[in-house]
Specification:
The protein is α/β, with parallel strands linked by helices and about 300 residues long. Helices cover about 30% and strands about 15% of the residues. A hairpin with a 2-residue loop joins β10 and β11.
Length: about 300
């Protein structure tokens, strides 16, 4: 059974991404990349009351983008692509071993999404900072937006933050990412271009000691029209267990990207979770990118056929 909203909000969903020792900043598999800028004038205030920008001038901006002029109907986004922490925040009081886990990012998701975007000739936007700094798939008004505990790990650097410190994380990381996604979708709408929104995620294979048997999951909220088609396509492959709206489900209370950019606009959309142990290595990312690309294309054809 799907977990309750309260249970789900405790777990930061785990995918792959840009990391201090991993993917080179700005690199893509195909197409040019644009770096996102931070919000002008934002400052962060530490517990001592000192004020300065959260991100230094030489640090990566809030998001990376590729393929903006791609011909596809698809737009691919990755909310938890990176485990990077702004230098000003140090390591948030965590050892490196914790920052490599799913609590910090969605392991494997970036590599999969880049390859899917390249295969489909689709625009691609990914967040450049860890979900532990601020979760870009949470409404900033909910407690899990800047978690003090993730799974069973306390996040010392997120405890006792001032309002100014929290505002700075939103202004320099959350807002620029979502403003860019909004601008991209606005641009496509103004040009009369159809859009199908795909949010790529990955999930931990073991959560609180419980091993997950599904290989992937398809998530949605009120609108199942496209997600159901993708689910049907993935389930055609023998030997795969593809879950339907579990172990997570999309909701207004615990999600942001699909409700705000997909449902609110009436766009067909789907959120895809892949078990992280299947996409930790490049070979798995290639395999799943090919699988998802096929499923998306077939589901697109089915959707267009239904709309005619």
């Amino acid at each position: 059974m799907p977990k309750s909203i309260e249970e789900r909000s405790l777990e930061l969903r785990g995918q792959d991404g840009v990391n201090p020792g991993g993917t080179k900043q700005g690199s893509t598999i195909q197409g040019s990349t644009i770096q996102g800028s931070t919000t002008e004038g934002s400052t962060t205030e530490g517990r001592s009351g000192d004020k300065q920008r959260l991100l230094a001038a030489d640090e990566p901006p809030a998001f990376m983008e590729a393929g903006r002029t791609g011909r596809s109907n698809f737009v691919i986004v990755v909310d938890h692509a990176s485990r990077r922490i702004p230098r000003r925040l140090g390591d948030l009081g965590l050892p490196e071993s914790e920052l490599q886990r799913h609590i910090a990012w969605d392991i494997g998701a970036l590599g999969v999404a880049q390859r899917v975007a390249a295969a489909l000739d689709a625009p691609f936007v990914a967040q450049n900072y860890s979900r532990l700094v601020i979760d870009c798939n949470r409404d900033p008004g909910v407690a899990s937006s800047i978690p003090t505990v993730s799974e069973s790990t306390e996040i010392p650097g997120n405890i006792g933050l001032s309002e100014a410190a929290m505002r700075a994380r939103r202004a320099e990381i959350f807002d620029p990412y979502h403003a860019h996604v909004q601008a991209l979708l606005d641009e496509r709408a103004a040009a009369g271009r159809p859009t199908i929104l795909v949010a790529q995620h990955s999930m931990t294979n073991v959560y609180k000691g419980e091993r997950r048997q599904m290989h992937a999951a398809i998530l949605y909220n009120r609108d199942r029209r496209f997600a159901g088609l993708v689910l049907d396509e993935l389930r055609r492959e023998t030997g795969l267990i593809i879950a339907d709206n579990e172990p997570y489900f999309v909701s207004d209370e615990t999600d942001y990207t699909i409700p705000r950019h997909g449902e609110a606009r009436g766009l067909p959309h789907v959120e895809i979770e892949i078990r992280q142990d299947l996409v930790t290595e490049e070979a798995g990312q290639v395999e799943w990118a090919e699988r998802i690309s096929r499923a998306l294309q077939r589901a697109e054809r089915a959707l267009l056929g239904e709309l005619r």
